[in-house]
Specification:
Elements (H helix, E strand, L loop, with lengths): L2 H9 L7 H13 L1 H4 L1 H9 L8 H13 L1 H11 L13 H25 L10 H13 L1 H4 L13 H13 L1 H4 L17 H13 L1 H4 L15 H13 L3
Length: 242
């Protein structure tokens, strides 16, 4: 049953230029590690020219020396045993005296230039620092801060200056009370004041004599031929004894 199939398997031949074969070859080339590192291997076979004084070599050597523990402790190993008899340099009298003298000397040398030039300062009058100090002194000075109205620091005909001057005149207590200065020291009577006039008007309104007019003060003339007057005269004549 399988004899014919086994014989056919040995006789099948696939063309090398079919799409499946080409695709398989391309995939094999893409995933091949040998082809991936082929360029690197060929570059290694060519060799390289690196001089001993090249910048990368010097950088690598400097980094190695800095990172080396032996180079880091080399100075310390050489100085071991020099301080015999003292556990530390601070307890050595000579070293302490030398350090103290060095500190004093450094302080004297540090202040030498300042002491020499302390009385020999020459600053130009138009220096920036001097101008800034003058401007600051002008700002904080009470004399320059309080200026009279006639001492203008800008053009007097500017609109903002005119407006500021008007506002200052309105707010000034001296200008506000200047029309009352002529009254200072002059005697004054209460007659004619507002309170007195108001009291008089209130008295007139509450006065009963002025509010009610008496009958005898009214000018009245009776009519003689009115019916009431004629009737009254007739009754008076009839009742008269004469």
């Amino acid at each position: 049953y399988t004899e014919a199939w086994d014989a056919d398997k040995k006789s099948i031949h696939v063309m090398p230029d079919t799409p499946d074969i080409l695709l398989a070859k391309a995939n094999a080339a893409n995933v091949s590690h040998k082809l991936y590192v082929q360029a690197w291997e060929e570059a290694k076979k060519k060799g390289y020219d690196m001089r001993a004084d090249a910048i990368p070599i010097k950088t690598a050597k400097a980094s190695r020396d800095i990172a080396s523990d032996y180079k880091y402790k080399e100075t310390h190993e050489k100085e071991k045993g020099h301080y015999i008899g003292c556990p530390s340099a601070k307890e050595d009298p000579k070293l302490a005296l030398a350090a103290r003298a060095m500190a004093l000397q450094n302080d004297r040398l540090y202040k030498k230039a300042y002491n020499d030039s302390k009385t020999q300062i020459h600053i130009p009058v138009d220096a920036m620092s001097v101008q800034a100090a003058k401007e600051c002194q002008t700002l904080v000075s009470d004399i320059d801060y309080r200026q009279y109205l006639h001492q203008w620091t800008c053009l007097p005909d500017q609109n903002d200056v005119i407006h500021a001057r008007q506002a200052y005149d309105l707010q000034s207590d001296n200008v506000y009370k200047s029309d009352l200065e002529w009254l200072r020291g002059i005697g004054w009577l209460t007659e004619g004041s507002v309170d007195v006039v108001k009291a008089k008007k209130a008295q007139e309104l509450l006065n009963d004599r002025l509010y009610r007019t008496r009958p005898e003060q009214l000018k009245f003339t009776s009519i003689t031929d009115s019916p009431d007057v004629v009737l009254a005269k007739t009754n008076a004549m009839q009742l008269s004894d004469v």
